[in-house]
Write a structure and sequence with these properties.
Rossmann fold; 6-stranded mixed beta sheet; 15% strand; disordered N terminus
């Protein structure tokens, strides 16, 4: 079997189970709208505000589901992961709720506020070189030494199912959407979201959006096979990861398209969200709105759901 023929990693049943497992441990975030943004897009836009989630990002959902799915014996030795920020904080928080240790490997160039949040949540941080190979090698070393369980940032069905609960809630609050947009990094969110959308509203399209400087998902989608990413270059640090075989198989099964946007477009969309919705989002969260503003997809007359993935920003280094 080739990866192009592989089955999706999760089903809607997994997302429903995740919802039960994380109930009371994460927030049900609001869905916001704005008349000015609607007018500019010539569409109705519904923003699922995961920037207001625990730890400031949707990652709280997947990490909490994965950590609380462990047996007591598995959890006793702790959990480990690698992350550029949000997932590390999510794992640290979930581990603290469960009362177990958390080890988080982070790149040396990690955003200072994101590293500080992980530390505040009680995780032990290990820094490494800013490459995927270095991150994976270091977390493997920690697991070998401690026996901790890996909670991968996206290549984990439990993590993917947890992320899918954001789209489940979005469709409950805006049930007649024509289109759902989500950023694409490693593919856990878009895979989970698309699984939920296609189960609850099969007629809705699901489109992933990523920076042109980190476009492995768009290239892979068009090629019909998973392609390695070139060195990602984007302000959207949360979207620099590459797809895994699991996430790509799920994208192939449920996602209708993947489009890309410019760096300038990301910054402009980020500022527009701050100014109109009056909420703080990080660059990764602004990528879907950038696709609408740049005309990367046609939304006129549609009802569009957008997952605002996170709001953890280094306020000393804003891009304007």
């Amino acid at each position: 079997m080739t990866i192009a023929d592989a089955a999706p990693a999760i089903s809607f049943v997994d997302i429903e189970a995740a919802r039960v497992r994380i109930a009371g441990k994460v927030r049900r975030t609001p869905v916001l709208a704005n008349a000015d943004l609607d007018a500019a897009a010539r569409a109705r836009l519904f923003f699922k505000c995961e920037n207001l989630q625990e730890i400031g990002a949707f990652k709280a959902r997947g990490a909490t589901n994965a950590v609380f799915a462990l047996t007591d014996a598995e959890a006793a030795l702790g959990v480990a992961t690698h992350s550029s920020g949000n997932h590390g904080a999510a794992v640290a928080r979930a581990a603290a709720l469960r009362g177990v240790a958390a080890h988080v490997v982070m790149p040396r160039n990690v955003s200072a506020p994101k590293a500080a949040q992980v530390e505040r949540l009680g995780a032990l941080i290990t820094l490494c070189e800013p490459t995927l190979a270095a991150r994976e090698a270091m977390v493997a070393k920690i697991i070998a030494e401690t026996g901790a369980r890996l909670v991968h940032p996206y290549d984990d069905p439990l993590v993917m199912a947890g992320q899918g609960t954001a789209a489940l809630e979005l469709l409950e609050d805006a049930p007649d959407l024509d289109l759902v947009l989500a950023p694409v990094g490693g593919g856990g969110l878009i895979g989970g979201a698309a699984t939920a959308v296609k189960a609850l509203r099969p007629t809705a399209r699901v489109i992933g959006v990523e920076p042109a400087g980190a476009d492995d998902a768009a290239r892979s989608f068009r090629a019909g096979r998973r392609l390695a990413g070139d060195a990602p270059a984007t302000i959207a640090d949360g979207l620099r990861a590459e797809l895994s075989q699991r996430t790509f198989a799920t994208i192939r099964a449920h996602v209708d398209d993947v489009v890309t946007v410019s760096e300038a477009g990301i910054v402009e969309a980020m500022r527009a969200i701050w100014e109109t919705l009056k909420v703080i989002v990080e660059p990764s969260a602004a990528v879907p709105l950038a696709a609408i503003r740049e005309g990367a997809l046609e939304v006129a007359g549609l009802k569009v759901g957008i997952i605002l993935t996170g709001g953890n920003v280094d306020l000393d280094h804003l891009p304007w």
